[in-house]
Each structure stands twice: as C-alpha cells, then as structure tokens.
Amino acid sequence: MLGLTVLLSGCQGLASSPFGTPQEDPLASAPPIERGLDAEGLSTLLSAEMAGQRGDYRRATLGYLAMAERYRAPQLAERGTLAARFSNDVLLLEQAVSTWHELDPAAEAPLRLLSGLALQRGDWPTALDRRLTLVEQGLHGELALFAELALESGTDPLPLRERLREHLERAGADAHPHRYDAVLAMAILEAATGQRQQAERRLDLLARDHSELPALWLTRAQLALEADSPRQAREAARRGLEISPGDPRFLLLMAQAELMLGNVAAAEEHTSTLLDEHVGNQELRISLARLYLEDNHLDAARRLLLPLVSSDEPPPAAFYLMGLIAEEEGEIDNALLYYRQVSPGSDFLRARLRAAQMLIEDDRLLDARAFLRIERLRHESRFSELVALEVELLDEAGLHAEANALLNRELSRTPNDEPLLYLRAMRAWEQGDIDAMERDLGRIIETNPDNASALNALGYTLADLNQEERLDEARELIERAHALEPGSPAIMDSLGWVYYRQGDPERALPWLERAYASMPDQEIAAHLAEVLWALGRHEDARRVVEQTLLRYDEHPLIDELLERIPELAPTSSTVNETTP
Question: What InterPro entries does the record point to (predicted)?
Fold first, then answer.
C-alpha cells in the first residue's frame, strides 16, 4: 500500500539514498576551496583532489575530513561527504556526514543524511531524533511519512510514539508551521499502538482548523482501511478528492475501500481513472494488478495485465503475475509458460522457484528438475543461481543425497565455479565437515585471492573454532578481506571476533560496535555482548541482549550465549513489556 502511494505521489519521501550513480566528475558540484592554506594543508587537499579524480574516494574523503577538522571548515566536510557518497562505504559516509554536522549543526543537508543513514541500519529512534532536530529548526520533518515507513518496516512504534509525544508537549510546538505533520504522525503511531480512539480525537481536533489539508484525509482514510472500516475510508478519501481533485492517492484509497466492500466494478472505475491520468505507466498498472490479486479478484487483475503481456516490450513482472493467476486457477501448464517468459531481472529467480514449487506440489518432481535443467541451458549467465535453487528445493523435499549429487556433478563440470564452491562449503559447514568446507573455500581463494566472502568465511570459521594454533591464520585471512571490503559489517564482526579470540577484547570492541551500528543482527549482537561482558561493562552487555530479544522472535545465538553466561539475561519484566 505505502509503496504504491509513494509511487503515485511522486514525492521523494525520506532522505534519499546516500549512494548515487557516479558522474564523470562527482565532485564538480562541491563547494570551492577558498581559504588560505599552509604547505601541509595544501598538500593534503591536493592529494584528496587527485584521489577523487582517480576514483579513490576513500582516500579523498579522509583527506577532506582531516583538513575540515583542522581548519574547522564545514565546506571541506561537505566536500568529503560528496566523495564518500561514491565510495559505497556506509561507515565512511557516516563519518563524513557526522563531521559536517559537528562543524555546522544548523545545516539541513547533513541532518537529513544522518537520518537516512540511521534508517539504513534500522535505528529508527535516532532517525526520528534527527528529523525532530530539523523540525525544531523550522524545517519540514516529513514525520507522517516517517511514521508510515516505520510501521512498514516492522519496527516497534512505542518508543517513536513516546519521543514524538515529548516533542508535541514541548512549549512552543504549537507555533511550528508544520505542526500538523507531527500531529498526523502521532495519530498514526497511536493507532498502531492500540490507542485508536485517542488517534481519532487528535485527527478530529486537527480537522477543526485544518480541514483543507489533503494529508489529514489521507491519514484518516489509511487508518480506516487498517481498522477494517472501508465505509469510513471511502468517505475520508471522498473528502480528500474534494480538496485535491484527481489526486491519485485518494483514487487508490477509493479503489481499496470499494474492494473491501466487494464493489469490484466501482474499484475498477477508480483504477481506470488512475490509468487514464498516467498513460503508459507500466509500473502503476502492475501495482494495481497486485492490489486486485491480494483480494483474489483474478479477472480484474488479468484485465490490467493483458495489455502489458501483449505489448512490444512486456515487463517481466506482468508475466510473473499472469503465472500466479493461472496457477491459482489450476492451469499449471499455462502458468509454467508464463513463468518461463520472465526474463532475467528482479522476478527471474522468483518465477523459476514458483514454477518448480508448483510442479513439485503437483507431484511432478521429475518435471520440476527437467524444467530447471532446461532453464540452466537457456540462461547460462544464471547457471549457478539455478543450480543453487534446485539444491534448495531438493533439500526442502528431504532429498539431501540428491542435492549433494547435483552439486558435485555440476562442480565436476565447472570446477572453479565460485558461487557453487561457496555453496558446497557452507553446506559442509552446516554438516560439521570443516575439512570439506576448508577445501572448497581454499580453492576459491587460490583461484581468486580477492574473493572477500571466501576469505572472511574461512577466517571467521577458524576464529570461531578457537584453535589457538590457527588464530593468526584466521586473523590474516579476515584482515585481507577487510582490505578488500572495508565497509562490510560482516567482516568487521569477524575482525572483532578474531581479536577477542586472541585475548584482546579492547581491540575487538570498536570493530564489533561499528559492525553492530551498521547491521544489528543477532550474531553480531551476541559477539558484542560477550565482549562487553568480558570488559566488565555488564549493563551495556545486558542492554544489547535485551534489544536483540525484543527485535527477533527467534534468537538461537543469544540463547546459546545466555546458556554460557546466564548473568547476561535481562529482567523478565523488561523483555516481556507489552505495548499499550
């Protein structure tokens, strides 16, 4: 729902991705360097400029940041940020943006970038704080959209609601030109945390003074749909259309409400209006077809898709959806034809997976395997992925011996296929055959010494085995991987873990903290908590464990850690805290 709404609105939403498409000179738009410099400063900046022109954006960024801190010049930090955006290193970018923000706390751009970076690593409270800082400076924080995205991500809305409540209760908040945006965000979060009546009252009060706001009726319609109140949603969307005639978001909401009421013909009228206003928009037509499919209105979805599959350049997603429709109607062979026509792209593997699963569910395992074999011949560039797909399906069917035989057979034909060697190595690790895993990873590294994934996997495994005589080897492998991919959280986690295994928790800690800040998964959390505990920072360790227990429904690595260190367990009242 949210993705389609954003598509129709054409808005940019939250801060754009910090990575853009490289231009011929990505620093051409950067602010000029105007201050006088001493010899060292001039040399450093010239080196940074030359590094940027050569595409060595990491070195360029570090040069600019060093001089920005030395001269307290936000313009140099901004230039460093521009270079970092092209480095594909999230941590380097965050370092650059943080320096820029420190040197110019009132600047809008670094705050928006910091908010976006916080979202990338799943730190929604920090992202909200950054946006509220923008609001407090009189700028638009896009808080309502932020709240919707937070709910879409599955994050816990309660801390966000309480932080936003503090903001609204602060003296002077009433005078803010965009206060309505914070009120809408608050209503969204209240509804999501069970305070629907309070949310409705808040929206009623807002409607008294700001009934002309399309965003008000948009929020009311969305909340009504989520509450399974399609008539209220339809009325709110109708009011929105009166204020903003032709607004595609309200037309979409009207269509959704009519579908919930069972009025398919009325819904199609609204979607037809949308398509008339967006002629040639294939993505919109596909998104609307998905909407009808979600409610199992197959004929309506088919009517939207048929013009696409018969066009000169049919989008792959249209064939995939037509396959789903045919499969739902029991037309297996027809569905197979559609799935086969999905060309390489985002839906390619999903279509082959669905086709093979469909055949297996119809007791046609041999046909499924023949289909995947033919697809490997038709699409040589996706050979490894299709083999891996068949291995996965065989494993799911309990045919592990057949899966091993397939993998061994294909590797006998293509002995240096790195993805398949890596897959076999990981299967060996799961089966406890470390020697076999090491052979396959070693072959990858021998053929391609710059395969960071293989270097890290082997190094981490050796570190995790904690065999003292091989820890130096493990560290060397991981350090080589880090030199190749310095921004990888997984590799930073491995570095921290091998340093800890070598008895140096203080050296391990900053690597694990950086890895956790960028990718707070439970494996990194378990490592970080254990190292914090070893350093005597017991409350910090418990806090990491508590956050992970709340974030994941299943947490076997944390459970294993708690078995070894029971004192790490947070209090049950904290972990079982319920949302009001």
Answer: TPR-like_helical_dom_sf (IPR011990), TPR_rpt (IPR019734)
Q: Give the pLDDT score at 155.
A: 84
> 85 with 20: CB under 8 angstroms?
yes
Which tokens sit at 75? 């313009």
Residue 244, class by beta-carbon neighbours within 10 Å (0-12 exposed, 13-18 middle, 19+ buried)? middle
Q: Which domain holds residue 532?
A: 522-575
Number of domains in the chain: 1
Gyration radius of the chain's alpha carbons = 27
Cα(53)–Cα(50) distance, integer angstroms: 5
406 falls within a domain: no
Q: Give the C-alpha separation, 374 to 369, whole Å.
A: 9
Residue 195 to residue 580: CA distance in whole angstroms: 8
d(CA 528, CA 558): 11
- Count of alpha carbons within 13 Å of 205, Cβ hemisphere only? 11
- Residue 410 in domain: no
Other C-beta atoms within 10 Å of 38: how many? Answer: 10
Give pLDDT tens digits for 362-412: 999 999 999 999 999 999 999 999 999 999 999 999 999 999 999 999 999
491 part of a folded domain: no
Query: Exposure string (b/e) for 339-368, b if CB count within 10 Å is 16 or more?
Result: bbbbeeeebbbbbbbbbbebbbeeeebebb
| Angle (CA) 572 555 576, round 5° | 20
Does 48 map to a domain?
A: no
Q: What is the pLDDT of residues 425-462, one digit of tens each?
A: 999 999 999 999 999 999 999 999 999 999 999 999 99
C-alpha closest to that of 489 among 57, 55, 92: 92
Q: pLDDT tier at 31 (50, 70, 90 boundaries)?
A: low
